[in-house]
Structures are given as C-alpha cells and as structure tokens.
Amino acid sequence: MRWKNILSRRRRERDLDAEIRQHIAIEERQRIDRGEDPADARANARRDFGNVDLVKEVTRDAWGTAWIDRLIADVRYAIRLAARNKSFAVTVLLILTLGIGASTTVYALLNALVLRDLPVSSPEELVWLKDPSFSYPIFQEVREQSGDLFQGVFAWTIENTNVEWSDITERAHTLYVSDEFYSTLRQNALLGRTLNSTDVGPVAVISFEAWERRLHKDPSVVGKTVSIERVPFTIVGVMPKGFFGVAAGLAPELTVPLNAIEWPRDARNRFQSPTSAWLHIMGRLNPGLSILQANLQFRQIWPRVLETVTPLTETPDRRARYLSRQTELMPGRNGFSRVRNQFGDPLWTLMGLVVLLLVVASVSLANLWAVRTSARRREIDLRLALGATRSRIVRQLFTEAIFITAIGAVLSLLFAGWGTALLVRLLSTGEDPVTIAEPLDIRVLTFAFTMSIAIAAILSFISALRPAFKRSGADLQPEARAVGYSRPAGKLRFVLVTCQVTVAVILVAGAVLFGRSLYRLVTVDPGFNAKNVLIVEMDPLLAGYRDAALTSFYERATDSFRTIPGVEAVSLSAYPPLHEQGAWTGSIQVDGGTFSSTGNSSVYFNTISPGYFSTIGQTLLSGRDFNLQDRENGVRTCIITESIARDFFPGQEAIGRTISVGRDKQRQNLEIIGIVRDAKYRRLQEPARRIAYFPYAQQGEVVNSKNLLAEIRTSGRPERIAGEVQRKLKDLDPSVLVRPEPLNKGIRDSLVIERVVAALSVFLGGAALLLATASLYGLLSYNVSQRTSEIGLRLALGADRSEVLWIVMSQSLVPLLAGLVLGVWASLSLGRFVEKLLYGMTPRDIAGLTITVVIVLTVAVVASYFPARRAVRIDPMTALRHE
Amino acid sequence: MSKREQYKNRIELLQGTLDLLILQTLQWGPQHGHGIGQAIRANSGELLNVETGSLYPALHRLEDQGWISSDWKISDNNQRAKYYRLTATGKKQLSAEQSKWKLMVKAIARVMKPV
C-alpha cells in the first residue's frame, strides 16, 4: 500500500488539488443558489473551507508517505547547505574518508587474514595441531590412534613450485594434501571431482581463480594437464569460487596428493623420517566434542603416538627429547596460516594505530560540527520563530549529519577497496604473494557501517545539544539577532584539542619508533656487502644431474657466468646469505669431543665454493679460503666465523684445529683452515650466527640433495645481467629451471612488514598531527576573532605587540603541554605491545620520544603563530569601532 | 503552538468517532467530501461542524485502509466531484464500529447516570 502511494504521489497530489477546488466550487454554487452575491459567495466559500495549504498538508500526512516528503526536503536542504559551503563539506568528507577508510582498510585485512572463518561447512569443528609442523609418521599415527576423536584428519603443506601452464611457466604455491583433505573439510568440487583416497597417480584440482585466469573458464578443463616441477598432472576438478584451502592469505592454484611431493627429486625420502617436520595436521572433531574434551582425550593419545614413531635405535637422550615433545589441539575455525603468523601482530598494531587516528578524526569532526552548528544559531532561531517545531528542526539536523556521514561511508568503502588492494600489494613479495578473496565482505561492511553510524550519532548529538534548543519558545533571542559579544571557546573545546594532541603524540611516537627501527635494520651491517650481488636459483637436480655430472654442471655454469661483461666474481653456496632458503643447523665438537645434548654446541652450516667470501664481500680474517686442493679425497676442511673461534676456542689459535660434525657413520672430522667475519645467516632481524662453512667438493651428499645457488658480483646493477644469466644457462641446458634475483631485493622483501608498518605509521602519524594542529589552529583563530575588541583595546592602551602575541599563543599551552605529557605517558605504556615489531630498539625509546616532542611542539607553535600574528596586526581603531 | 498542531490535536480527538460518522454517512450511498461534511452537520442537528482539516485527512486515511474507495463523477448539478463509497470491508468495519459505539454509549451513560 505504502509503496503504491509513493509511486502515485504526483497523481494523488493533483487529485487532492482538484478535490479541494471542487469542494469550494460546490460550496460556492450552493451559496449562489441560496441567493448570495456571486462575488461574496466565492469569498465566503473560500473562507468557510479554511487554509487550503494546511488542509493539504494534514491530508498528505494521512497518506503515510509524509516522512518521505520530509526526508526528501531535508536531504535537499542538506545538499543545498553543502553546496553553499563547499569547503566545509569537503573537509568533513575528507576527514570521514580518512578516518573510516583507513580503519576499514586495516580491518578488512585483519578480517581476511586473522578473524574470518574458513569457507567450509561447520568450521567450528576444525582443529589443528599446535607447533605447527610434524613428520609424516606422526601424522599417520595420529590418524591411526585418534579413535573416535575426529570425523576426519588430514595433513597438508604448501610449497613454492615451478608450474607450467600451456602458455606460461611460473613460480606458484602448490597445496599438497593427504587424501582426507576434501572429505574432512566437506568441500565438493564445482566441476569434476575433488581428490580422494583412490588417487595414486598425478592428478590435480585447480582453484576457481586458476580456472578463470589460466584456462578462461574452459568447461572441458577436466582431463587437461598442468606440470608441477616438470611432472605432468591431470586436472580432475575445479573448486568453487573463494575456496582457498585452510591457509588464509595464500591462494594456491593447484592442489595435489601429498605423495606427489616426492616425485620431482627422488633425493630425500621425506615420508620415512620420524623427525623431519614438514606437515601441518588438521582434523574435524566429532560433533558435540568441545575443544577442552577433545584435548583431554588427545593428551592420552599423543604419548602413544610419540612412542610408536620414535626409533628405538636412537640414543637414550635423543629419544627422551623426542618423547618430550608437546602439542595440543587448537581451534581451527579460521585455519592455520603462515601469513597470519607473519602479519597478525603487525596488523593488530596497525589496527590500534588506525583506531587512534579514527579517534582524532572523530574529535576533529565533532569540533567542526560544533562550530558550524553555533554559526547556524541565527538561522535556526529564525526558523523556530517562523513556526517550525523543534522536533522538525532536530530531525533536519540529524538528517544533515546522517546524510554527510552516509556519503563519507560510501567514499570510505571506495577508499578501503583501493587501500586493501594497495596493502595486499605492499605485503606481497615475489616469492610470497598474499592473496585475499573478497576483502570487503559483509563483516567489513558492517564494521564501516557501524563506524559511520557512531560518527553520525555523535554529530547529531552535538547538533541537538546546541544552545538554540536550550530555550523554549520561538522568540528571537538577543544573541540571535546580533553578533554581539561572545565568550571565548569553552572548556570542552580545550579538552577535545588536548585529546587530539595526546593521540597525535602517540601516533607520531609510533611513526618515529617504527621509522627508527626500520632505519636501523636497513643500515645494520650484515657482515657482508649485499650491494650488486645477483643470486641465481637453478634446479639441476630436477633435470636429473647427480654426482660428477652435477659438479661438472656447476663448474660449467659458473664459468659461463664469468664470461658475462660486468661480472666481477662468481661463487656457489647451498644457503646464500639472507635468502630465506631455510637453515641447516647442527652441533660441533672440538678435537673429537663427545656429543652431548646439553650445552649450546649448535651452529649453522653452509656448503660453499671457493671464492664465496670474496664474492659476497665477507672478510677473511685469517687463514685461507677454500681452493682446488679441497677435493673430495683430500683432507676434510672447514672455515668458521669469528664467533665460533671465540666460543669454542677461547684464547687459542683455531686454525689447524679439528671440529667434528655429524653422528655415527656420517661423522666427519674437519680441519679449520680459515676464520671469517661474523655474518647474518637467514634474516636481517636476527643476530649474527655462528656459522661453519664446508667446501662443496667435499660434501657430495649435501650437493646431491639440495640445489646450490650461484652468487654473482657485478660492477653495475645486478638486474641488468639477469637476462644474460638466463640465456647462458639455457645454452648450457634448456631443461634446467633458473631464477635470478638481486640479493638486495630478497633482503628488501624480507623487510616487508617493517617497511609497511613504518610507512603506514608515518602516514597515520602525519594525518593525526595535521588534524590535531588544524584543531589547535581553529581554536586559537576562534578565540582571536572573539576577542578582537579586547585585543584592540589592549593595543590602544599601549600593550606591547609581543605581549599580545604571548596572550594568544599561551592559549595553546595548556592543551599542548597536557597533550604532550599524556601522549608521552601513553606511548611509554603502550610500547610493550609493539616490542616484537622492533629491531634494535626498546619501546622506551627516550631519543625517539624526544624527537616526537620536538616535532609536535614545532608544528603546534607554527600553527598557533598564525592566529597570533593576526591578533598582533589588529588595528586598534577598527577593532574598537567594530564594537 | 502552530496552527498545524491545533488541527492535529482535533484529528486525534475525533479520530475514531469521525471515522464512524463518515462510514455511517456513506451507508446511504456515495458522496463527495463536501456532501459528507454537510450530511454530518445536518444529521447532527447542526451540532457537529466537521472542519475540512479533519475531514479530508480522515477520508484519505480511510481510503488507505481500504474501507472506502473513491472515483470522480459528475454531480447532480453538473459539477465534477470525487465521490467516496463504502467498500465491503468498510461495511464490516462500520457494523463493528457501530456495536462498539453502542457499547461505549451504554457504558458512558451508566457511568454518567445520576445515582
């Protein structure tokens, strides 16, 4: 009924007009019939009817569509007002977009990576095993022994692989899953089928996104092939849109059976080792089982699992160590994700920062709104005087607040859409792209909506509380008629500005802290020179090279690299510095000492070629580098870092001494032939490690199981020769996959979190400082304008100009100093939440806080100088006449 | 207090009763707004004077509720006018209102009866 009314409003309006016209006409006719003079009859009929417009209005009210009329009128009025005062509208929208948009952006990422449930049915039944990686035998035993704990349990891992589609070869994440993966998640394929326990051959399920991107939604995709690490897989199914598996933030395009992981390189058997941990384990609890009950049961099962898988051949102390391994079931409704572990903390920190910015932005808006409402007092009084009801005006002010906030909310969502895409791109690196499906889901929209409503409510509240409504009656009050003498800004505005300064100080302190931490990280000495080094990943193992052929391949490859113009040095290593290639660690003993599990004898290992140190610029402190004498059948040698020499040979000469590595049959005694400077091993954020280097010519077993990478020092930018490197290797053997990347870029990528956090905190700090200063400026400007006559009088009476300057500027002292004190105090107490994100800094960073205080003070003093200058320039005579 | 609110108050005051009076009037056949007003005045012995500001909102509301319907016709003295007529549900509503009214009159009369 109502909607029909709305549609036919115009018609009804015309109808009502005619009805009333006819009513008067009938009355007129009757009066004439009764003998009245036609002119009188007409006038009387009209008078008799009453106020036509009023009758129309109350009749329209009966239509049930009156609220729409009013709403339209109010929105029209709001648009007119905004158009008349564009700068106000634009400022409000900018602040809204910044405040809500920034927090929605970060919330969208937090939601997608940390909070959101997996896109499967009953995700609350899912659990994962904490730790988080396990060996295949452990998975098998958990599955065997868990009894009626799980409805299903599966193991999975995501690997970086070389994938060949029909048209393109690329590095991509591939998901390897045990056969109960899909049945446990209760996930069906969109097209074809999922993987199941009957799959033994090379079959793959592809994601919807891969189907769309690579195969253009080819409906006959089932049966086509795609190669992973040179092995062709038959596609058996396509998953529905949005299904990414169990790791939030990663979107593997291909899912294949777990055993496929062994096919490309048959070098190491990952499935036999009870200790090598490479699988994540997830399960679906039987319905009705709480995580607490499940853990009670699991605590019975776990020791049996360990007992079964730990080999009896191990030494007692090693056995004891394996058996003491602890784990528990963790709630798995949002899966388990490396990306989450990596970005969770930084995102929560950023969330905290954007919420603080939102506070500053809201206070700024409240301030603006309050000033604006005061400025409209005359208009509102006038409308009250003309007969508008107070509720009507309040409703109209509410509509204005809601209208502008709604536009702001829409802009914020656009901003958030763009912001999340940008943030995802910033967080992604070449090797590890972060992928998020549907970042702005219903939860994020609700978040943005709630924020907008909260702000609209604050603004409405401010409107309704203005003095215009504290009076009753519709008389034009004296204040409404003239500008008159007003008081300076009230206490509330001082409190609001203080609050803004406080939050701005916190955000600036955060920016300084993260900025300084990043600077330290970028400028820290890693122990070598990362500039102008190209790291070349090659995969001769996949191409089938082993033993002598392999060594010869490496030699030919490095020789061919040396012929490229601009190449200064070439070397090989299993673990190039800071290259995220994982780590190789073990214990060493001095001079044939016995193994013990106690005491820290753990060091990092690397296998390198001669010339490695000079190529990456790590200084040889004493002794010699490896050379051609260090052959397979020669004396086994090694080079150690100075920290090993210091820790294992205190006050002694290490060169010429022997260390032992490995156990039992694999035990090797190595003669120390050189000492090099300490260097970082895997990450810039870590301290320098104790590293022992072995010549690759003497480590055949290692070389046969792990590809070596080449380091190439160039005279110019290393990117320039990347193409040439690929060509050289292709000439040598086109079947060997190759991927060159500058060492610097890899290091930069490893600092992605630090860079993003620093950049965003600088942005947020700057925005907060800008808003706070603008409020401070507004406060002082307002006071100067209110006190023009007073200042004029002072000047006329001979006040010094510097005195006037001080009068104005001193007003910023209270909010500024209070804000600084509170802000510094808050920064110190909030600091502990970000400790994990800092490098070489403590959150109680006195130098950083000093910088913060100086920045905020400088900006604030500059901001308060301008209103003060205006005050000083007041012409006493004009000011007095003005009164 | 604005004029508009005075009107509103009167509508509220008369609401149920006015609806009953309109329905009752339309019982005798279709009629236009002016005619309904006149009929109520005449039938009440000139005691009730329904203001247009009450009459028209009531007519439109009753139409929205589906108790009456309207169409344009030519009147006896050749004037176009919007005629309202009772609908089927309107008739039911009328009898319900009538019995409610009778009950109300009885009740109030009892209360008001001198002891």
Give an account of the 3D structure.
The complex is a heterodimer of chains A (883) and B (115). Chain A has 883 residues and is α+β, with helices and mostly antiparallel strands. Chain A folds into four domains: 2-64, no CATH class; 120-333, no CATH class; 342-521 and 752-882, no CATH class; 540-736, no CATH class. Chain A is 52% helix and 14% strand. Chain A contains 29 helices and 21 strands. In chain A, the strands form three sheets. Chain A has a six-stranded mixed beta barrel with strand order 2-3-8-5-7-6. In chain A, strands 13-14-19-16-18-17 form a six-stranded mixed barrel. In chain A, strand 17 and strand 18 (668-676) form a beta hairpin. The model of chain A is unreliable at 470-486 (pLDDT under 50). Chain B is α+β, with helices and mostly antiparallel strands. Chain B has one domain: Winged helix-like DNA-binding domain superfamily/Winged helix DNA-binding domain (Arc Repressor Mutant, subunit A, Orthogonal Bundle), CATH 1.10.10. Chain B contains four helices and three strands. Chain B has a three-stranded antiparallel β-sheet. In chain B, a hairpin with a 5-residue loop joins strand 2 and strand 3. In chain B, helix 1 (3-26) packs across helix 3 (52-65). Chain B is globular and about 50 Å long. The model of chain B is unreliable at 1-14 (pLDDT under 50). The A-B interface holds A 1, 5, 15-16, 18-20, 22-23, 25-27, 29, 49-51, 54-55, 57-59, 61-64, 387, 389 and B 2-5, 7-8, 11, 32-35, 51-53, 56-58, 60-61, 64, 72, 75, 77, 79-82.
The CATH superfamily of chain B appears as Winged helix-like DNA-binding domain superfamily/Winged helix DNA-binding domain
> Biggest β-sheet of chain B, characterized?
3 strands, antiparallel
Question: What percent of residues of chain A adopt helix (DSSP H or I)?
Answer: 40-55%
Show the largest interface: A-B, 27 and 27 residues
Poorly predicted spans of chain B: 1-14
- Number of discrete helical segments of chain B: 4
CATH class categorisation of chain B: Mainly Alpha
What is the CATH architecture assignment of chain B?
Orthogonal Bundle
How many DSSP E strands of chain A? 21
Q: How many individual domains of chain B?
A: 1
Label the overall shape of chain B. globular
Query: Helicity level of chain B, as a percent range?
Result: 55-70%
Largest sheet of chain A: 6 strands, mixed, barrel
Computed over alpha carbons, the radius of gyration of chain B is: 16 Å
Low-pLDDT ranges of chain A = 470-486
Distance N to C terminus of chain B: 41 Å
Q: Quick check: average pLDDT of chain A? A: 86
Strand coverage percent of chain A: 5-15%
Order of helices and strands of chain B: HEHHEEH
Mean pLDDT of chain B: 81
Q: Strand arrangement, largest sheet of chain A? A: 2-3-8-5-7-6
